[in-house]
Amino acid sequence: MKHSISFTINGEKVHLEVEPHKTLLNMIREDLNLTGAKEGCGAGECGSCTVIVDGKAVNSCMMLAVEADGKEIITVEGLAKNGVLDALQESFINNAALQCGYCTPGMLMSAKALLMRNPKPSEEEIKEAIAGNLCRCTGYKVIVDAIKEAAEKNN
Amino acid sequence: MYKYVGKDVKRVDGLDKVTGYTKYVDDIKMPGMLYAKIKKSPYAHAKIRKIDTSKAEALEGVKAVITGADVPNRVGLYLEDKTFLATDKVRFIGEPVAAVAAVTPEIAEQAVELIEVEYEELPSVFTAMDAIKPDAPLVHENLGEYYHGPIFFPKPGTNISNHYKIRKGDVEKGFAEADYIMENEFYVPHIQHAPIENHSVIALTEPSGKVTVWSACQSPYAVRKALSVAFNLPLHKVRVISPAVGGGFGGKAGTTLEGITIPLSQKCVGKPVKLTFTREEDMICSFVRQGCLARIKTGVKKDGRIVAEENTFYWEGGAYTEYGVNISRAGGYASTGPYDIPNVKADSYCVYTNQPVGGPYRGFGMSEIHFAIEQNLDMVATQMGMDPVEFRKINAIKEGGHTVTGQQLYNVGITKCIEAVEKDIEWGKKSEPSGPNKVRGKGIACMYKAPSMPNNVASSAVIKINEDGTANLLVTAMDIGQGSNTVLAQIAAEELTIPVEKISVVTGDTDITPYEWQTVASRITYCAGNAVKKAAQDAKEQMLKLASIALGLPAEYLEFKDEHVVSKIYPDRKISIASLALGLEMPDGSGVHGPIIGRGSFIPPNVRNTDKETGQGDKPVAFWTFGAQAVEIEIDTETGQIEVIKVAAAYDVGKAINPQLCKAQIEGGIVQGIGSALLEQQIMDKGRVLNPNFVDYKIPAVSDAPEMIVRIVEVPEETGPYGARGVGEPAMVPTAPAIANAVYDALGIRINSLPLSAEKVLKAIKDSQK
User: Fold this and answer.
1) Which one of A7, B32, B281, B406 is least enclosed by Cβ atoms within 10 Å?
2) Residue of B663, B702, B707 to mutate, interface with A, max A Cβ within 10 Å
3) How far out from the chain centre does Cα B35 lie?
4) In-domain check, residue B461
């Protein structure tokens, strides 16, 4: 039996019928064709599926789609506004804070959730915010630098 | 000087990646797409007696089921020893034996459960040392019948699929002259590439029989060749597209899932079939870095000169070594590390075991052998009472020095690298631990690496000049994260004087982009870079001729400047690249030449075979990259936990085309090296991988990243574009041995195997107190 749910994603209202066992990640990718969020492990271990739900970074592979009912979701596709990149997106490019790019959407969303609740994070808080986001390419230093740079622009 | 080369040009793929727009294979959805799943072997070694697929085929929604009978042709890059599905027997736990395509992944999964396979278990081997015993069960009884490249030496009737030998000088005489002789043994376990993107492939068979695959792959042309052999298809009927690669590290070189999705798609013509591995499958069923047991015997004079070395490497190659044989070869021809040793005997054995398949992994054998070489060097230095840095400086290859194959080297930057890290890590200065029960130590390790590739591998590039003065650069060098699209665009920009933002890079489609052997071996900046440079020069020559006519000046008086061909003498006499792009319009309205298309081809010059018996040769590789890393660590003596505080790295890259991306590569390599040093190991019980997930197989997270100081040394490589060498793989090679050497510095304890996990370190501390 499918469930009828309504939610906001990247500022748009959406109504969907979803299977009870469908994950939020699968709904976003398959039903909404927003493929920025990735599946790296399907078990909440790598963070590449991170999206923002009601202001909090969540592993969308660990949340059921039905739980999205009434929620406000932001995915990486919703970061840039009217063709203008978010400060984080700019700073990721400037700092070469991405290589293969596969973890990048999840990394950006964890960072965005942090800056939404804490515009002036310390280095430790930045590291804590992306502790669950695995990156195999960069060695992380440039990612931390990029988030710091974006935070400074915020202030 | 240069306008685009040597500059921190921002990644040309950055915008698509930060907006989530980049489409990786698993992001691609096609109408009518089917989903595949594989049936895997539960046995490490067993005969397949019978496979019954009837129940699976009867399940509603199932469109195709295949078994080994559907893919009988053996394939392999260097040794044709594998089939895409097991045929007569299975050789490791997790080996695919059958596959299903169905309308949903769930139905495919159900169908796989319904496939019944009858096995007859066979005796297995799980270590190289067991596998080389005379009475060991054979993993491949028919090794003698397998086709292989001429540079490999399998031993039919054994589990040894390659024996590479080095015989340089007179090793017995060298040991006789030595004042001290020491022997040590080291072991490096299997590890996983763990790119964040799991392997994914879509295959589509057209009514004409033409097959297209969209594959997360590093090497579309090498894959096309293997698929053509596997499926008896001519090359023009196989199209390999690599849309984007979410991390490779070697794991996506060679063929992966294409050989399973193609036969499924051949049974459902017109319907694309997608197979995406789960993380667990990726960890078990895709390439792993093979284990390696290394024995080193060193003869050294009182003054610190190493005069003889006898090295033996046993590679645990796993069930198939189609790729692994070349890793053992690379281990052989680099067997002493970046040191000039006159007398060397080295034997590098690639050995079949009933374990996951060993394959290329960032470093291609160098991380494994340098873990042994660089710790051994410290152990010898300690015995001699010498400082490890001084000992390395004495033995490092100097200008005009020789490698183990007898190759004479010039433009060698290793000493500069050692000096750089010595300074940056403040060698010899002890810093205070952060608390009680903590001790600190420093360690150093060096490395060298050459691209491990057949002598005559080719690269090519095409540059199309557009009528508005922009350009399209077509290559099959794949940007797997290393930044090749940006670097190659910079090279084209430099030659053409067209800004990077006016150059669009098109990659990875064997029907469209020109030949590239593989994106592996840290060879792309060098090989593809040379091809791009030549393509740009070819386009320029064509435009020069036309400009000469247009301006009425001889070509030798013309040069390219800011998107124009300009007179060297009268700078106001010039013609734009844009106006030459489609040929030259003559005063009478007629035209000449037509569109400007630059072609560039490259093969590394004069790379030759080595002698079969001695491994000696004057140029067995295109170039060598040298580097050094020094680390400072802190160990908690109550928990055994190692924290890497600081890493200083220096690499002689010849010329950093993009210093920012070059440093980013090195930083990434350091942290991957820390993973292999402290965390990573495929834990196996009789061939069964016990930790196929990121909870039990940890890769470094942000908290594991240390402070990093990266120095770029630039001693130009004369055959490289602008002097450039590769650095992608070298970046992780010295990290693990440098940390192991720092452990000794901190504790006085030598740990000869990886990983240096907290429990292993704690046990070593406790054992030392007994």
Assistant:
1) B32
2) B702
3) 30
4) yes
Nearest CB among B11, B195, B695 relative to A96 is that of B11
Return the half-sphere exposure (C-beta side, CA atoms, 13 A cut-off) of residue B444.
26
Distance of CA B336 to the CA centre of its chain: 20
Last residue of a domain, one of B602, B632, B661: B602
Structure-block tokens of residue B397: 């290859």
Over 70: is that where the pLDDT of B321 sits?
yes
Quote the DSSP letter at residue B635: E
| Phi, psi at B640, each rounded to 5° | 80, 0
Among B545, B567, B602, the domain-final residue is B602
**What residues make up the domain containing B539?**
457-602
In this structure, what token pair is assigned to residue B606?
């004069």
pLDDT for position A155:
63
- DSSP 3-state assignment of B253? coil
Question: Which token pair is B661?
Answer: 């991306």
> B168-214, pLDDT tens digit by residue?
999 999 999 999 999 999 999 999 999 999 999 999 999 999 999 99
Based on the domain organization, do B100 and B248 belong to the same domain? Answer: yes
CA terminus-to-terminus distance, chain B: 64
Q: How far is CA B578 from the centre of its chain?
A: 39
Q: Looking at the structure, tell me whether residues B574 and B658 fall in a common domain.
A: no
Q: How many domains does chain B have?
A: 3
Query: Is there a single domain that holds both residue B657 and residue B547?
Result: no
Cβ contact, residue pair A96, B702, below 8 Å: no
State the CATH architecture for A3-78.
Roll (3.10)
Per-chain mean pLDDT for chain B = 97
Mean pLDDT, residues B478-496? 98
In angstroms, the separation between the Cα of residue B732 and the nearest Cα of chain A is: 11
User: From CA A41, how far away is CA A57, in angstroms rounded?
Assistant: 17
Single out the residue of B290, B297, B294 nearest to residue B317, CA to CA: B290
Q: Which residues of B touch A39 (CB under 8 A)?
A: 26, 198
CA distance B439 to B512: 58
Assign domain A87-154 one CATH number from 1.20.81.30, 1.25.40.340, 1.20.120.450, 1.10.150.120.
1.10.150.120
Q: What is the pLDDT of residues A91-117, one digit of tens each?
A: 999 999 999 999 999 999 999 999 999
Give the ipTM of the model, two decimals please.
0.99
For residue B385, count other CB atoms closer than 10 A to its CB.
7
The structural domains of chain A, with segments of one domain joined by +, span 3-78, 87-154
pLDDT in the model for residue A154: 75
Q: Is the pLDDT of residue B506 over 90?
A: yes
